[in-house]
Structure formats: structure tokens, C-alpha cells
Amino acid sequence: MSQAGTGREPPTAGAPTLPAPSGERRLLIAPANSAGQGWAWAQAVRSQLPGWEARNVAVYAADNTFGFPADRVLRVAQWQDPACRRDLVASEILPATHVLVEAMRPVAGMADPNALGWSTSAALDDIDVLLASGRKVALLFHGSEVRTPLRHAALSQWSPFDASGSDELTARLTRTTATVRSAYTGLDLPMFVSTPDLLDYVPDARWLPVALAPDDFAPPTPLFAHGRPVVLHAPSRSSLKGSSFIDEVLEELDACGVVQYRRMSGVPQQRVPQALREADIVIDQVVLGNPGVFAAQALAAGRLVVAHLPESVRRRFPTAPPVVEATPLSLRSVVLDIVSDLDAARALAACGPTFARTMHDGRRSADVLHTAFLQAAGTREASLP
């Protein structure tokens, strides 16, 4: 796509300006860092694209406790300090030649450094300032900011959203997605989404696969080695994972002595690899239809992953993901089938690490960024497999 502009009125004469970028090739990813992906993609660019530098900035709410890594972490209260934002411009934005703006959130609120606003309007102002300076800009969406609830409800009978739009979650996310869609509609900028299901909502985007950390690829521990199979469910957001259905089924099977059910929440990122290696079966979600970071980590760890991935999503992978399909209706029978044939379960789980390396070790992510956004700044020295 062209970088001609946003399709909005150009900045006024009194608007802030940035000096043109230097010749150094440098990517900035900011400010959401959902599930640590801004940092992971920056790592992928640094390691896979010769001649490129990359950094990410994460701006978190005060109650965010997941501890995802980032090159620079700010709390919203810090970001709202004008002095902090001026420093952010000087240390992170000025050195950048390319900026990947996440979730239609402002990077530094450059149009009015004294304003406290955290809005799509402020994000659009930032994009205007960046483009006017000669920097390249792209947009990245992670999920709930673009997954229109009523469209999801129309596409999936298992949707966690109310087709009438009347419940609080559906109503709130309907407002959010409408605001974000209004902001990006008409922007002549490259767009990316982090999971393939989101192409149903942003069809002009490119899928940017999630990238995992090296620790996620440690040698798997044996499956089903200690009595009853251990089943793990650790949702980041229970309302969007179908956790009420999962809990009901797995608590019953635990009480019957079929499995050991481990229900975790708010797991710090540092604990995730070990928690996965202590499990045999990982149930990611059964209602949303998105293959996210936690499922990718479980595959890398050699766990047997159970999730709802409709065929329309599975077809978007270059190779079939080794994920057992389950919905709220089928989950109980799926788990019983797994337990009845552990050899078949081991064989499928053994495909996970290779699949995760192929899709999620950062090579494919760097290649997508280079092909769809970065390559105009220079010729890549080597093509990624």
C-alpha cells in the first residue's frame, strides 16, 4: 500500500513537526505489546533482518500483572506525564524510520503533549505527524479492538457474544470496534492482524504470525507419565475463552477420576513454560476460534492442544495445525477420546514443536513485516525459508 497519507486533512501550520528520520533502518512497535508480541516481533526483526534495528514500547494499565517483556515499559500514569512523552519522542520515535502502531492507540500523543487523552483521535494525530515527517507507518490489530461482536455471533454458533447486542461485554466491544473501524477506514496504510481469524474483520490486512521466545522451545517433557492425564486451562480472559463450559466438563471428569484438572488464571509470563510442561493436555478456548499465543506456546512445549478452530481459520495456515477441535458441545467426548487412546494423543502432540518452529519462531513474522512494510527501505540480504 502507498504511504501517501491518512486521507485526512494535512496537519495545520501550528501542528507539531518531527525532523526527517536518519538513514538508519529502525522499526518501532508501540504501544500495546499484547501478550508480549510487540517485543517478540521486534526481537524477530533484529535477529532475522540484517541491517535492521527494532524496539518496542509497552504502555500498560496499572492493574496489568502479566509481566510480558518489552524494550520499554510505561504505565498509563507515566505516559500521561508530558515530560515522559517528550522523552519518548526523543528516545524512541526520532530514531525510527518505520512505526507499527498497535490497536489504534497513540504512541506519544504528539499533537498535544499536555493532553491526557488515550484515544483513537490521538492515534490518528500521531500518524499524521509521523507521515508528515517522512516516516513509514503501518497498523497492527490484536483482537478485541477489531473483532466485531455481532459479526462474530453471525459467523459462529459458539460465539461468546450476544447476537442481540444487549449484554454488557457485547455492547462495550461493539462500541470499541466501531470506534476503531471508523478511525482506520480510509487510511492508505499497510495493516496487519496477529491471528488469522481476524482477517474476517480486517480483510485488507496481512496476517503477522505471533512469535515465541526461545524458552518456549525447550525440549518437551514426556506426556502422560504420571497417572491421570493433567489438563490445564489458563485463560487470559475467561469470558472470551468459554471457560464456564470448560470448567463444568473438566471438573466433572476430575471428580470421576478421569483426569486431573488444573485451572489457572493471571499466570505471570515467566511461569507459563513451566506450567505447560507440567500438563499433558492444554485447553485453550472453545468459543472464540482464534489460535493465539498460549496455544502456540503449548504446541512448542509438545502438549496436546485442544481448541475451537473452525475450518475457515485452519485453511489459512500453510500446514494444518495439530490442534484437536472442540466446542462446548463436543468437549467432554473429545477429552474422553484422548484419554482412551494415549498413543494417538502422543503422536499428534509430537507434531507441535515442529509446527511451532515453522510458524512461530520469528522467521515467518520477520518475513511478513519485511515483505509487506519494511522492504521499501532497502533490499534484504537473504531470503527467509
Structure, explained:
The chain is of the alpha/beta class. The protein folds into two domains: 202 residues, Rossmann fold (3-Layer(aba) Sandwich); 147 residues, 3-Layer(aba) Sandwich (Rossmann fold). It is 36% helix and 13% strand. It contains 15 helices and twelve strands. The protein has a seven-stranded parallel sheet, with helices on both faces. Strand 1, helix 1 and strand 2 form a beta-alpha-beta unit. Helix 1 packs across helix 15 and helix 10 packs across helix 14. It is globular and about 65 Å long. The chain starts with 25 loop residues before the first strand and ends in an 11-residue tail after the last helix. 47% of the residues are buried.
Which class of the largest domain in CATH terms?
Alpha Beta
**Low-confidence sequence ranges:** 377-385
- What summary fits the major beta sheet? 7 strands, parallel
Q: What string, H for helix and E for strand, traces the elements in order?
A: EHEEHHEHEHHEEEHHEHEHEHEHHHH
Shape summary:
globular
CATH topological fold name of the largest domain: Rossmann fold
Q: Per DSSP, what share of the residues sits in E-state strands of 2 or more residues? A: 5-15%
Helix count, DSSP H or I runs of 4 or more residues:
15
- N- to C-terminal separation? 24 Å
Strands ordered across the widest β-sheet: 3-2-1-4-5-6-7
Helix content: 25-40%
Q: In total, how many beta strands?
A: 12
Overall pLDDT: 91
Q: What is the level-2 CATH architecture name of the largest domain?
A: 3-Layer(aba) Sandwich
- How many domain regions? 2
Q: What would you call the structural class? A: alpha/beta
Rounded to the nearest angstrom, the radius of gyration is 21 Å
